[in-house]
Sequence to fold (389 residues):
Amino acid sequence: MAKNGISDYRAFHDLTKRLLTVGGLWPYSNSNILYRLLPYIQIFLNLAMALVVFGFVLEHFSNVAVVTRGLSSMTSFASAILKVVCLIRKHKEITELHKNLDPYFEKLLENEKMLEHILKKVNIFRLLSGVLTLTVFAVIAFQIIAPLIFIINCKVHHVEIKKYPLIYPGNYPWNIPTSGFLYLAHFTLETFGTFALFFVTTSVDSLFTLYSFQIIGQLREMSYYITHIDSDDDSGKYIFHSCIIQYQKLIKCVNLMEAIYGPVVLWMMGTNAIVLCALLFQISKMKTITIIQGFMFTSYVILKLVQTFMYAWSGSCLTEESENYKDAVYSSNWQGKKPFMVLIVMCLSQRPLAITACNFSIVSLRMFISVVNTTISYFFLLQTLDSEQ
Fold:
């Protein structure tokens, strides 16, 4: 069981590290100039695509059905830009957070008696990260392949193509040739922009769940030691003192996560509802849906739901484990021992751990329910506006 937990954690950790490394976002202690330039390349590619799709949205702003086609792509690119900017601006914070969590958790994995406790539910964290990565890859793969399939299909049936399609509905400030080298250059730019979106989305979201799980692991370690205090007053005092200091460090880690991810979570709560609403509205307006379109729409809906659920569930697990730690402290072997009473009060007086999005909302499963409810409300609003046109 413990070996399976370690392999799940290693796969989860290594996948997140590889994805972040490609985008230049993993907090290495020593990195060269080229690696530090990678995040700015990510910003450029995502910004270019966001502006192109934004031009399309402005051009067709009066048509609700057409606007929703570009709205989901535009908000996705804008979300990727926000994520990279937050990680760049908070580079010191994320480096400090990484130093406090990652090496300590590696040491915990060396303690065999702790593995069963600290690796609970690690398979779910790994599953969520894996599902997110696969669904994002499926969506971008079909977005890139769809225009190619259209072109090949026209060539096979000898149908003349007046204008070759690109990956996204966009409006460039210059005329794009229907084919040839310049068309290929634009298609290549959109392809690179799509892969930039893939690496930013999967890596930054997975990193949030990874750090949340590492904090949860430390809370479980503290709960284990406190519930196994023997009658020796000196060893008990040392354990309580250590837990108080360690808990203070975890409070600082949670504050760092709020500073890094607060704007990201707040933005995600609004935009994911908009994207899901736009997808549902597009599906409702389509008279016929091909297999490729159906698969792409389904993957996109699953992607946004999993993405929102990852943040919400990780935040709920962290808060729940913090409450379990408080219960462990209160249930420890301290009755009738006056030296422990002061330490017990100090432990219980420390504030619970909960991640908030810019002091606006606690990151929990309630946030996920709120996004779903908002999606339904926006969907009915769009239907009302479309019927009035």
